[in-house]
From TrEMBL:
SUPFAM superfamilies named in the record: PLP-dependent transferases
Record's protein name: Acetylornithine/N-succinyldiaminopimelate aminotransferase
Keywords, alphabetical: Aminotransferase, Pyridoxal phosphate, Transferase
PROSITE patterns: AA_TRANSFER_CLASS_3
Amino acid sequence: MNLFDVYPLFPLNIVQGKGCYVWDENGIKYLDLYGGHAVISIGHSHPHYVEMISNQVSKLGFYSNSVINKIQQEVARRLGIISGYDDYSLFLINSGAEANENAMKLASFHNGRTRIVSFQKSFHGRTSLAVEVTNNPKIIAPINNNSHVVYLPLNDIEAVKAELSKGDVCAVIIEGIQGVGGILTLTGTFLQELRTICTATGTILILDEIQCGYGRSGKFFAHQYAGIKPDIITVAKGIGNGFPMAGVLISPMFTPVYGMLGTTFGGNHLASTAALAVLDIMEKENLIENAAKVGDYLIKELKQFPQIKEVRGRGLMIGLELDEPIKELRSRLLFDYHVFTGVTGTHVIRLLPPLCLSLEEAEEFLSRFKKALN
Ligand SMILES: Cc1ncc(COP(=O)(O)O)c(C=O)c1O
């Protein structure tokens, strides 16, 4: 059997990782400014993470959500404190799409409505409703195209007001910083006014923090720069540092009912242990502060490069827009200078490194990037 061929692959087999570096099967070492697609938060193969997961799997890897899981309860307690949302509840699942799917389902159970406002260039996943709120017709199958969604321009509060004033919108879903869309930030006033209009119209505000959350922006959540509180927040990627896991943070206004949501694997013993190890390391090594500090430094330095048209983002979520298509530059960076980077569209490089990236490693990247540009 062959693999279903949906990924355009680099001809590289990565077999090992440590901190902000990965190695291929030929022993070549790469600086990882991609974090395996914004997933690696605490760095590759952190010893504390390896030890906690190894110990847990030697005791119990999985049992079902029909019994008490104290590790899951501890994740909720710790996540509530570190994120500033200790009055919210946590529902654990396995992927970002699943988190958004459950968030929108919950919103609809709550207010009985069926229309969703999303934004141009947004990405929220590939399952049925998650893909329908994703503004990319190429990945929406006819069966998922059910007219639930209107896509509005980002940061256009008048367009949102016009839509929400109809009084029948179930939820607004928005990324704290658009990732796939090209690292596009929201203005503080837009988010603040969005919060106000959602409350006034009984519309649920869902913040998708799957890519920009979990410390990546330099605050625990990117929306915290605007000082607002959404009704529902979704997280994934960095939560398990590569262990498949996601979460929905749910405000106290929602009442849980037995059976309304559910999952076989979500929040299992091993995944929850991975999440606890991530929180331990984020706190012990001050990774959120590090993301802010190293991110500010990178953004400041990158703005000096005349070849870059625009530097966007916050913390360690950075987009570099060039005048030229970046395909060749990215290949040169990877194969000649051994640096992994991400991409979005044809002209934007995405930097999404582990949150433990040091100033020295940032310097190393800048020096290799300079050479690759020339
Ligand atoms: C903002 C955002 N939401 C949702 C998703 C979907 O997450 P997953 O691929 O884990 O389903 C992604 C994935 O890239 C994302 O960036």
